Amino acid sequence: MRRSLLLAAGLLACLPAFPVLADYPDKPITLVVPFAAGGPTDKVARDLAEALRKPLGGTVIIDNVAGAGGTMGANKVAKAAPDGYTLLLHHIGIASAPSLYRTLPYKTLDDFEYLGMVNEVPMTVIGRANLPANNFAELSKWLEANKDKVNLAHAGVGSASHLCGLLFQSALKLNMTTVPYKGTAPAMNDLLGGQVDVMCDQTTNTTGQIESGKVKAYAVTTPRRLPNGPLAKLPTADESGLKGFNVSVWHGVYAPKGTPKAVVDKVNAALRVALNDADFHKRQEALGAVIITDARTTPAEHKKFVEAEINKLGPVIKAAGQYAD
Ligand code: ASP
Measured in angstroms, how far is the CA atom of residue 15 from the centroid of ligand 1? Predict the structure, then answer.
C-alpha cells in the first residue's frame, strides 16, 4: 500500500503543472489586447479571433488590458499560467518598449513563447478637421509657429503612435506637448472633438475618418505610397521632406514562457491557416494592412525578427531621445 502510494506520488510529480489536454482547447482562449477596445490593435485581434475559430476549434475572446503603452497587457500575459488559454496580440511596441523604459516588469525575449507574425500596417499623420493646414508643408509651418501650444496624442510610451510621434518630432526638430491615452480609439475621440491637434495612427483606425473628412490626413509613414485603396493619393512623409521616415506597425501573437510545445504548435498551425483566410484578408486589406505569410509566421523566425527589431529600434530611439516623454 505504502509502496503504491509512493509510486502514485512519484508519477504525479512527473506530470506538468498545467496538463496539456489532447483536446486543447476545451474552453475559450483569452487573447489579451494591450490597448483600448475599438482601436487598431483591437481591430486586428477581433478579425484574427474570428479567423482562428475554425482552425483552432474553439472560441477566442478579447480582453483589453490597456495602459502604459501596451506594457501592462504584455506583463499580464508574461505572468499568466502557461496553459495556452491566455495569449497576447501585440505589435511593434513589444520591440520599442525595451529602449523606452529603464526597466520593464517582464523580459521581452525570455518571458514569452513567440507564436508568429500576423500583419504589417502603415501609419498616417493626421490632424483635427479644423486645423488650418491643408498639406504636409502647411502642417510643418503651422506646427513650427504653434509649437508652444500643439498637443500630439499617442497611446502611451511604448505604443506605435508614441514611436511615430517621437520620430516625427525628431525629424521636425520640434518638442510638442504629448498627451497619452490608453489606446488610439480614445485619442481619436479627442482628435474628432478638437481637444488634441495631431496624431500618428494605423490606417486600420484612420481610413474611415479620413474618407469622411472628420480628420485631415497629411502623410503616410511608409517609404512608398499605398499601392491602392482610398489613401493611395496620400504622399509619404519621406517625399514630403522627412527623408528616410519609415514606421510600419507589425503585429504578432505571444504566449507565456513555458507554454507546452504541443500548444505552441497547434496555435501556430491555426494562425497560419487564419492568415490565409479570404475573409480575414478582405477585412484587413480594405484598411491598408498587409497580411504576412512568409517565414516570420513561424515561432522561431518571428522571435528572430523581434530581436532584430529591438536592435534596430534601439539606436533610432536613442537618436530621437531628446524628444522622448
Ligand atoms: N494604435 C495604437 C498604438 O499607437 C494602439 C491601439 O490603440 O490600438 O500603438
Answer: 40
Q: Is 297 exposed, middle or buried (0-12, 13-18, 19+ CB in 10 A)?
A: buried
Distance CA 66, CA 68 (A): 7
Q: Is the peptide bond before 122 cis (omega within 30 degrees of 0)?
A: no
* Banded model confidence at residue 322, pLDDT cuts 50, 70, 90: confident
Cβ(220)–Cβ(124) below 8 Å: yes
| β-strand pairing of 198-202 with 151-154 | parallel
Which of 193, 158, 192 minimizes the C-alpha distance to 178?
158
Q: Is ligand 1 within 6 A of the CB of residue 37?
A: no
pLDDT in tens, 105-116: 999 999 999 999
Q: How far apart are CA 116 and CA 166, in angstroms?
A: 27
Which atom of ligand 1 is least distant from the CA of 92?
9
Residue of 62, 91, 207 with the most ligand 1 atoms within 8 Å of its CB, for mutation: 91
Q: What are phi and psi of 223, to 5 degrees?
A: -65, -25
Domains belonging to the chain, first-starting first, are 27-120+249-320 (3.40.190.150), 123-220 (3.40.190.10)
Q: Which value, to the nearest 10 degrees, does the dihedral of the CA atoms of residues 79, 84, 90, 95 take?
A: 60
Mean pLDDT to the nearest integer, 238-246? 97
Q: How far is the CA of 11 from the centre of ligand 1 (A)?
A: 47
**Dihedral over Cα of 145, 128, 68, 316: its sign:** negative
Length of the chain: 325
**DSSP-assigned states of every residue in 212-250:** TTSEEEEEESSSS--SSSTTTTSPBTTTTT-TT---EEE
Tens of pLDDT along 261-275?
999 999 999 999 999
16-56: per-residue pLDDT in tens? 545 455 789 999 999 999 999 999 999 999 999 999 999 99
